[in-house]
Design a protein that fits this description.
This protein is mostly helical and 92 residues long. The protein has one domain. It is 70% helix and 0% strand. It is built from four helices and no strands.
Length: 92
């Protein structure tokens, strides 16, 4: 089930031929695809930092609604990874 959800999240924010949101999406996809548990924590942190940086650059700009929605989906995907694969508690 986790693999299915990860694939659904990945497909929902990616475009096969290129990254729709290159400022953070490559790091997010790297986290989703990481199979080494020891490296996963770093990948998740990298993705969260890239997303945070992008949100900071979007602050005060009312555009980018689709990207903001993709960020929301990505953050939920990262939260799931942390809970299911890194044994973080679910703070939802």
């Amino acid at each position: 089930m986790l693999v299915t959800l990860i694939i659904m999240v990945l497909v929902s924010v990616s475009v096969p031929s290129h990254l729709r949101y290159p400022e953070w999406q490559a790091q997010y996809e790297a986290a989703l695809l990481e199979v080494d548990r020891k490296r996963l924590s770093d990948r998740v942190t990298d993705a969260e930092n890239a997303i945070f940086d992008r949100l900071q650059s979007l602050a005060g700009n009312s555009d980018h609604h689709a990207e903001r929605q993709a960020v929301k989906v990505a953050l939920n995907g990262l939260r799931l990874l942390k809970r299911e694969r890194l044994d973080f508690p679910d703070w939802e």
